[in-house]
Amino acid sequence: xxxxxxxxxxxxxxxxxxxxxxxxxxxxxxxxxxxxxxxxxxxxxxxxxxxxxxxxxxxxxxxxxxxxxxxxxxxxxxxxxxxxxxxxxxxxxxxxxxxxxxxxxxxxxxxxxxxxxxxxxxxxxxxxxxxxxxxxxxxxxxxxxxxxxxxxxxxxxxxxxxxxxxxxxxxxxxxxxxxxxxxxxxxxxx
Length: 190
Description:
This protein has 190 residues and is of the alpha+beta class. It has helices at residues 2-27, 29-33, 36-41; strands at 48-57, 65-75, 81-92, 99-109, 114-125, 130-139, 144-155, 158-168, 173-184. Strands 1-2-3-4-5-6-7-8-9 form a 9-stranded antiparallel beta sheet, with no helix packed on it. A hairpin with a 4-residue loop joins strand 4 (99-109) and strand 5 (114-125).
């Protein structure tokens, strides 16, 4: 018996330690869950939170394929809204030039198919256009980008500044809504 205890005492010690920890957790489960470290790990009705994600939306019924890379993503508890920060997004309309966007934060509303992008927003199109603004709404069903904020648009041989913007990705049309100033460079006059 002494030989058996001498050889098995580390396993018996670990078993007793596990039993004590389990007893302590069961007895004080409310206090344990309210501990700040544990509260950060357990979702309390806030939904799911992820870091450094890559997401592709390629549903033909939605109309517009898009790819999102973000530093942080939170999904609401009802899974209807996706919040993201420090993002890069690529919009790929069917048989049209793609657009790359980057910014600080955004929200994707699954029911309406609208994506609200905010914060130092910069977009670049495959065919050489660049748009800078503070906020833009992407409607994946209609394939339109809109804003009522100030915009700066740069293209080959010109720049445009104004307030408000409507971009129709399907028709490849862009319209600045008000207070428009256009600068045409010399190269475009030749």
